[in-house]
Amino acid sequence: MSTTLSPSRFRHGRNYARSYWMFAVPAAIVVAAVIVFPWIFTLFMSVHDWKVSGATPFVGMANYAKMLVDDRFQWAIVRTLVFTAASVVAPVILGVWAAVCFASNFRFRGLARTIFVLPMMATPVAISLVWTMMFHPQLGVLNYLLSLVGLPPSAWVYDSATVIPTLVMVETWQWTPLVMLIVLGGIASLPSDPYEAAILDGATPWQMFRHITLPLAWPFIVVASVIRMIDALKAFDTIYVITLGGPGTSSETLNILLYQTAFAYYDLGYGSAMVVFFFVLILLVSLLLLHIRQKQVWQ
Amino acid sequence: MKSRHRLNRLLGRIGLYFSVLVLISPAILFFLWMLSLAFKNEADNTAFPPVFIPNPPTFDNFIDVFAKNDFLTYTINSIIVSFTATGLALLLGVPAGYGIAKAKASKAAVLILIARVTPGLSYLIPLFLLFQWLGLIGTLTPLIITHLVITVPIVVWIMIGFFEGLPGELEEAALVDGATIWQAFRYVAMPLARPGITVAMILAFIFSWNNFIFGVVLAGRSTRTLPVAVYNVLTFEQISWGPLAAAALVVTAPVLLLTLLMQKEIVAGLTAGGVKGG
After folding, report:
1. Chain A residues close to B15, C-beta within 8 Å
2. Residue contact A130–B212, C-beta within 8 A
3. pLDDT at B157
4. Taking CB atoms and an 8 Å cutoff, what residues of chain A touch B234?
């Protein structure tokens, strides 16, 4: 058997590289069918007036032009950006704090970390339903808790002034764990010598965090922030279940408007144009992520 | 000097425990409240001030949910969809991850990354039309196919990282001994990668199980998955909180238990890739 394998063929890496590609072919076919095909077809639909039934005439850039004058669309962008900005800042601050805590040894660390991670693993629809019950203005437990500490009741998701901050709170509760995990992975890979030297010099925990942990873990914090930004832009399940974009349209983000346009009004052409816009937006943020990742030396 | 050092240490410990308590209490309180709602009777659930501990705990909410809704069918649907989508993803994704890692094809990895960041909704418009043309709406097939959008990238992404981390010497030895590349993969690399495959399987399964958006658009009355079915409980019975909380608990309990049991694997997988479905 081994005699048929000439050593010269063995040394040529190229033969093998081609063979290794064969391993990826079945997956590539599926990815092409369910991921790449939809991208291309969406682009095609976005230049047509496409309703669920009837003719689908070519309309050029009309769907894109409509976005420029569509108030509802533009407000959705503003809301999405506000929601995203807040849903990056809060989880990143809390997530870094949590990562620093979970990086030190203490009893029940494993259990505490698992409990902390539960919100991001739990089924989004299920947690959204429970949050909805907690937000109830009269019977909800949250207003009761506020009254215990002497604060006035809040209207939570039932008022256009408080709905976005409330949804940001849910998003923060749900996704701070992912930031924590990424930053914790970073902190775990840091060298221990600077800390030992700092302890000998009598540095306080805050000084060690400020001058050692923060600068060294910074690349991981940036990656976590970009991932958080992408996920916040795409937030759908919680907003859909808790408010469906309401009251009125006061929590209608891009993703919710997109859903309504395509699957409630069945304006698939315009919906596709929004998808393309959304896709470009997210792609730009992702390129930022790749750029950062490539610039860093990863262990 | 020494006692001051010790005092500082003590304060540091207290601060640490206090921080951890503050950080994990929102999760603890939330899930306890979920349990409380699910096991209380209706009068206690709508009482003000709220009743915290179910006394006595009741299973009526669960009986009610299963009696009024065809939850058994939806549970079976969810199991079929998530298991099939995860199984197919492993079948396709484990070799693909190996091939990409061995060929050092970082461009293919970028495609997977883009799939990870694309909103789930953006696949749905064309796929919805496609399934309509093919007459598949109302069957489970569209759900299984769209769930591949979630599971395949997760599996490939985790497996690339895992295979890159394996030392290649054993496979090279097998190749020198005359094994084919497939044999080297199947009998040498794959057994070594079993921990990675476990992580990929768990995460793919959980994010498929949790998925809502594909089901809400593509599922018919009899092909709903559990998250969609639970959402419909909200739409039709807005007032009865007990059954609603019970339904929510039924959907998410398997995931929470899996997370508690496999916490090490899950944390490892999530840390590696920042993976998330949909």
Report:
1. 205
2. no
3. 87
4. 129, 132, 241
- Of the candidates A45, A98, A116, which has its C-beta nearest B126's C-beta? A45
Across the interface, of A118, A126, A268, the residue whose CB is closest to B230 is A126
Place of tokens 């069957």: B139
CATH topology of domain B68-273: MetI-like fold (1.10.3720)
Domain ranges (residues) in chain B: 24-58, 68-273
Sign of the CA dihedral running A261, A267, A270, A271 = positive
Quickly tell me which residue has 């240490």 as its tokens: B9
- Overall fold of domain A62-295: MetI-like fold (1.10.3720)
According to DSSP, residue B69 is labeled S
pLDDT of residue A293: 67
Q: Do A117 and B263 touch (CB under 8 A)?
A: yes
Instruction: Note the pLDDT of residue B167.
Output: 83
Number of Cβ within a 10 Å radius of residue A109: 14
Token reading at A246: 């309401």
Confidence of residue A39 (pLDDT cuts 50, 70, 90): confident
| CA distances in angstroms from A81 to A69, A75, A253, B112, listed in the order given | 19, 10, 9, 25
- What does the pLDDT look like over A273-291, one tens digit per residue? 999 999 898 888 878 777 7
- Listing DSSP states for A65-103 in one string gives HHHHH-HHHHHHHHHHHHHHHHHHHHHHHHHHHHHHHHH
pLDDT in tens, B194-242: 988 998 999 999 999 999 999 998 888 889 999 999 998 876 655 688 8
Helix, strand or coil, per DSSP, at residue B111: helix
Closest CA to B203 of B263, B140, B143, B142: B263
Q: Interface pTM (ipTM) of the complex?
A: 0.90
